[in-house]
């Protein structure tokens, strides 16, 4: 986005998925993280990795914003885009893939 290289929280080299780009955010209290959802979504679409993940932890985002984001990722056809509402759910997903 904005023509700059994309920075994210980290990349995971998964035996099952290859490179997985992960954007992670924790927000315990109400704040502005949900205002950044459109940026997270749009900027990750421009990355070369096929597997994209956004992980949230805490309850500081608006539920309506989370619903908006999950609806947007469902419309993506050329990438595998997942959103996890907790770190634990993400860890279960990524570790189960590595065991298979």
From TrEMBL:
Residues 2-94 form the PD-(D/E)XK nuclease domain. InterPro entries: PDDEXK_11. This is PD-(D/E)XK nuclease domain-containing protein.
